[in-house]
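Here is one chain, start to finish.
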Amino acid sequence: MTGSLRSIARTLLLGNRDPFDRPASSLIERQLELHRELVPAYELISDEQARIHEGEAYAIEATCYRRAIRYFHAWRIDQLQRRLGARLESAEVLDVGDTDGLMLKHLGKAGTGFNLSPTAIANIRSNGIEAVLGDGHEMPFATDSFDLVLCFETLEHVENPFQLLEQLARVCRPDGASLHLYPVGPRHSDPSARPHGPARACAFL
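Its structure:
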């Protein structure tokens, strides 16, 4: 079922209500109370920007999911600034799997967003960030092109993650950094036993 069909089905069944919305939103609010240093970056991305994080065609209507996008946006910015420090100021950055360009924008970086989706490319460019359309298995960049290569929540979506990792290493300069983030959970021999939906979301919090 496509994202738009899922959205329609959810609306027909629940209207604008989501049974997970209130407890999940409360959980994110609690995290912000515990980590006040994330609040400024959380407020950089608006609720509307979170709603169209992957484009209008895949608009996110549930409040809790929009708040989760804003929270992890803030967390990623904080982690990059902490880990890279002054290196970030002069780094040429490639963000593989970028969908809106906002992380580069809020880091104060021109950078380049890279995605297979024309919708994502349009979304990135709408926020003033350069974007290149292409397949991560064969990236159209010269070897040693970037000081910093980011790949967040993307490896788990590609057909051959090992080939993508080779490409990330290839385009990153020898003295650069390639940072990846992907969901990690208990291994299950039965795919149907893996957590999905709310249970998967909670694993990040």
